[in-house]
Amino acid sequence: MSELRYDALQKRWVIIASERQHRPQDFQSDQNIKRSEKECPFCPGREDQTPPEITAIRPDGSKPDTPGWRVRVTQNMYPALRLFDVEWELGAEGFYEAIPGYGIHEVIIEGPDHDRDFVDLPYELTVDILRIYRNRLGAHMEDLRLKYSLIFKNHGQTAGASLVHPHSQVIATPVTPRTIRMELMATLKHFAETDRCMICDMVERERSDKKRVIYDDGTIIAFTNYAGRFPFEMFVTSVRHETFFHRESDRTLQSLARCLKDILKRLSIALNDPPYNYILHSGPNPNAEPIFPGFWKTLEQDYHWHIEIIPRLVKTAGFEWGSGLHINPMPPERAAEFLREIEL
């Protein structure tokens, strides 16, 4: 059984996933992504090689766990967390805090085509994938023991992908991860001081400066991070304020699909299909009880969903790990200019 342990010094939770320890190949530096379509468990016709289907988009009305799907969701075959009957009490373990590995770990299989990268998927299928994102984030809100759900995609071996078939993942946790907590605290403080959403102010500044903007259709905007840790790091969000991604309209998802296809295609052309991670940050579960009473009182005004895209172009070394201070050799303004100049 996995376990969540609290690092009191760094103020962060870590998942100790003992159930995944039988995968020593994950630590080998020469690991190769499984590319053979013949052995891919995500391809149509091999639905029995994955855990049972949780939900799917099936235009032909076919039965679960059979071919005919466009997007399919199952539990991860090697889940870091899982749902089970368990009770725990935060603070019960003292200095070395630990709670059971309760949570959700799902895989979102992004279409039936084995070798088709996300940027090359049909526009309509990309919209369907975003609809599934919306569905899963909304569904996880119903469990009051789950405080946060994070959707992420690993593209390429260096970014952590172990299968070539396009897919993303969602992990829902009973604690608020440190990175999210830092964002929540920063946006809460900004709102308390200015009565404005920090990310709305970022969007306004970027639209005014224009130097870092890559895409802006009036509904969705994408720009390189002003203080990006990594070369070509990008930030994508809605121009209109919205805390929760699962509340977004189909119109916004359609605009987001066009934006992601545009900027990821530019990235692929410019850098020869680099490995990357993208991470969707939405608001935490407002129905779960916060540790501090009233902590999420202004959540719907101070937090704003967004996507972070991180190309894996440089290695994090000793200075970065030891200090938390990253060295980015590519100015974000130059990166944005370079991407804007790409002809699609």
From the structure above, extract its key features.
7 helices; 2 domains; 3-stranded antiparallel sheet; 344 residues; alpha+beta; HIT family, subunit A; single chain
Tally of domains: 2
Largest sheet entry? 10 strands, antiparallel
The outline comes out as globular
Radius of gyration: 20 Å
Please identify the structural class as seen in this structure: alpha+beta
Strand order of the largest sheet: 3-4-6-8-7-12-13-11-10-9
Predict the CATH topology of the largest domain.
HIT family, subunit A
The CATH homologous superfamily of the largest domain corresponds to HIT-like
Low-confidence stretches: 22-31
CATH architecture identity of the largest domain: 2-Layer Sandwich
Compute the number of helices. Answer: 7
Number of E-state strands: 13
What is the average of the pLDDT values? Answer: 90
Order of helices and strands: EEEEEEHEEHHEEEHEHEHH
